[in-house]
Write a structure and sequence with these properties.
mainly beta; 7-stranded mixed β-barrel; 11 strands; about 35% strand
């Protein structure tokens, strides 16, 4: 039996527009080559779904800032996977049927967000990852997420 890195989806977050904090939705429907139904970033080419590890959020919390899932505008907050160390092209299986492919690690922040202004740091540009949906399906908070070997 081979071991593959695995974790948990601790929060599923959406917002209707771009550039907004996302709120926990509890569940979502991901559509192939589209993204999350009802989310402002759905339909983009390579940034259909954004992911950030809870461990990355904890780095900012350790600086005394009260932040949590969705505050960095990520769609999926995970725990147990070091997402930013996975390579572009890595595939992730989540829930019963969802298959994602990492397309980008980090992003350029043209405007400094409120978190950066408060603590002088933000993890999303370095540790957030973006993916496209290869196989859609429903995803729930608490579902597993693992690297496809």
């Amino acid at each position: 039996m081979s071991l593959v890195p695995a974790g948990t989806v601790v929060s599923v977050n959406t917002s209707p527009g771009k550039g907004q904090k996302k709120r926990s939705a509890g569940r979502c429907l991901l559509r192939e080559n589209y993204g999350i139904e009802g989310d402002g970033h759905a339909g983009t080419d390579f940034r259909q779904v954004s992911l950030l590890a809870q461990e990355s959020i904890e780095k900012i919390r350790a600086k005394g800032i009260d932040v949590g899932p969705g505050d960095f505008a990520e769609n999926l907050t995970t725990q147990g996977l070091t997402l930013h160390e996975l390579g572009i092209g890595t595939r992730l299986r989540a829930g019963q049927s969802v298959l994602l492919e990492i397309t980008r690690i980090g992003k350029v922040c043209h405007d400094r967000c409120a978190i950066f202004r408060a603590v002088g740091d933000c993890v999303m540009p370095r540790e957030g990852v973006f993916a496209r949906v290869l196989v859609g399906g429903e995803l729930l908070e608490g579902d597993g997420i693992e690297v496809v070997p």
